[in-house]
Write a structure and sequence with these properties.
alpha/beta; 5-stranded parallel sheet; 5-stranded mixed sheet; 11 helices; about 20% strand
């Protein structure tokens, strides 16, 4: 007997302007047996704006109940249901609920498809004016200052353009931390309220953006940060080699592993990186301030 299961549909929703809704979204909303929504009230406003009516059962699916509700939705899918998953804005699973359900469906060999739609990540990247040939999405940074700095140090030497989401009330602290770790002059763009009435894109060095954000910023925020400069071996002095080793150690690597990794990324002999670390360690014994972080 052939096993027949339903289909999970991940649907992108507008990040601001409802006119950006993909044409297939309306059809899927009307067709679905179950609509799982991050916020059922926002779903209601969206269906009203699109002039459609959901025929299927509507359930909430958000961070607080994602783990508990996933088995229920998988059961419906195994019974042949067509389940549509929508979040408040953008694509499900991208810093939004969805990953657990997709993973569960993959494990059960249930079909998963998507209705592509607007993305704050790609929209901000395109508007930033920064290189777009290679980029990475870093999501939300930790709320605690120490953990935030640690996460930023992990990508201090990342050469790809980086995209972050951030809450408006933490934006100034985040930009200040980025300026500290990445460098005050590193270029960035803060994209606010994308596709909405008060859309704004603020571009400039991180130090300038941090000062601007200190005055208070509102709305949905996406931050795009230029990658680290591509420095060759000739551009690296001993202090820079030691800094790179320290960054990796602070991220949890053992010193031996950190030295080997820095040697690979800079193209320098491992011995040269090792000697720089030893020299800094010796200098620290004579003057603690000179080798802060090495022990």
């Amino acid at each position: 007997m052939v096993r027949v299961t339903g289909t999970l549909v991940l649907a992108g929703t507008p990040i601001g302007d409802t006119a950006d809704a993909p044409p297939r979204l309306a059809a899927e909303l009307e067709r679905a047996d179950v609509v799982a929504a991050e916020d059922t009230r926002r779903l209601r406003r969206l269906t009203q704006a699109l002039g459609v009516h959901t025929q299927g059962r509507v359930v909430s699916y958000f961070e607080g109940n994602e783990s508990a509700r996933t088995p229920e939705l998988v059961e419906a899918l195994e019974g042949g249901a067509r389940v549509l998953l929508v979040t408040d804005a953008g694509m499900p699973s991208v810093s939004d609920p969805g990953y657990r359900l997709v993973a569960a469906c993959v494990e059960k060999d249930i079909k998963v498809t998507a209705v592509p739609g607007p993305s704050a990540v790609l929209t901000a990247l395109a508007l930033s004016g920064l290189p777009v040939d290679r980029f990475c999405f870093e999501g939300f940074l930790p709320r605690k200052a120490g953990e935030r700095l640690g996460r930023l140090r992990e990508v201090a030497d990342e050469r790809r353009t980086m995209v972050y989401f951030e809450a408006p009330h933490r934006l100034d602290d985040t930009l200040a931390a980025m300026a500290e770790v990445f460098g005050a002059e590193r270029r960035a763009a803060v994209c606010r309220e994308l596709t909405k009435t008060y859309e704004e894109v603020k571009r400039g060095p991180l130090k300038d953006l941090a000062e601007w954000a200190a005055e208070g910023v509102r709305g949905e925020i996406t931050v795009v940060v230029e990658g680290a400069p591509d420095t060759g071996p000739a551009d690296l002095d001993e202090a820079e080699l030691v800094r790179r080793v320290q960054v990796r150690e602070e991220a949890g690597e053992r010193r031996k592993e950190a030295i080997a990794a820095v040697a690979v990324e800079t193209g320098l002999p491992k011995r040269e990186v090792f000697d720089a670390v030893v020299a800094a360690k010796n200098a620290a014994r004579q003057s603690p301030a000179a080798g802060k972080g090495l022990s």
